[in-house]
Amino acid sequence: MLESLTAIDVEREACRRSLAVFVREAWPVLEPGTPYIDGWHVHAICEHLEAITDGELIRLLINIPPGTMKSTLTSVFWPAWEWGPRDLPFYRYLNASHEEGLATRDTLKMRRLITSDWYQARWPLRLTSDQNEKKYFENEATGFRQASAVGSMTGKRGHRVIWDDPHSVEMAHSPKRLAIAERVLRETLPTRFVDPERSASVVVMQRLNEKDVSGVILAEDFGYEHLCLPMEFEPDRRCVTSIGFKDPRTKEGELLFPERFPAHTVERDKKQLGSYATAGQLQQRPAPAGGGIFKAEWWRYYREVPKLLWRAIYADTAQKTKEENDYSVLQCWGCTYDHRAILLDQIRGKWESPELKRNARAFWGKHRAIKAPGMGSLRSMDVEDKVSGTGLIQDLKREGIPIRGIQRGTDKLTRMHDGAPFVEAGLVLLPESAPWLSDFLTEFEAAPNGTHDDQIDPALDAWVAVGDARGHDYGALL
What we know:
The chain is an alpha/beta fold. It has 14 helices and 15 strands.
């Protein structure tokens, strides 16, 4: 019996058993002029996709740097493998990307592979002549492949829904585009499955923003297995998954794919990308370790409050109180005699207008009552004159509280970059311990890609005032 097996029979069986073997054997069909470069990460991705085929997983999130074959593996080879070697030609695939053209590109690649002489000799599968287009093709077993943009993924249902880069690098910081992708994730994706119990969803992407699709999936625990493979190994973030996979690297900084991205290439790319893009696209964490705009080592801390020239309260009021919206924040800052900004106290919460007014009044009263020598006078409460802040200004002004409306003339990102040198120069003091300190530092570390930024605005306002007192032109922040 074994003697009657042909080379094709052996290859067919090897491909059936392993997606990684299929990728290696099929590679020359799609990339005849490019040698195949194997890597352990290829096998890791293939093992997790195989787990979906075998019914072990139905939700998979893959975060991995660009250029590591993520699209080709998940959107081209895997569907072709299921149709042929795994004998599932009736499976239907919906492939979506941030741009329809990218999803169409991979659809054409898969069709080229399926119709190749190599594939047909091993797994004969005819495509229907009337359903064979750039964005859509169907086979005679009723399986099909459809390409679309993430925002227009409607109509058909699939056994597999594959999202490949739902965000573009250029639009990753657009609140509107992020909101569209999140809405589709929540409202459209769950309705696109042939079988809600068994059909699978795969999201493969590089991290670009804390609020990107990956961020939403991870923050809300949507049941996705998370395969996270950064370019440089970080031991405290080692990836371990439920199918028994463990990132095989052991040394800090060990590279993901040195055969294609050696050390000198990675360093070159990191320099060009900058810290934000490096953290997201290469390391799969949108906020750089140690902080992005604001570095962790820049902050200065105090145990005892030094002598102060004056104190003031700075507030940032949220527009809404829903879970996804920002908090309202009131901070009490002081100006030292050597013109440094010192954060003395903070309260933060999601308050409706009456509660916001009560908390602001109480916070003012608390610090107005402090008359200790060297604490300076409490001179004003400064609030952005906008939306809920406008109402607060009007209400408290009628009560005799010296509250001032301020206008912020530039965008927040510009003001963050303008304020960063103030922190780097050691001109900002924080308490060594406070119940709110961890959240404060975390928010600054994640900037500008954090989920919340409500604590940043009043701090920037305070630094402007202290900077002006110091004689520096930090007024540009406003």
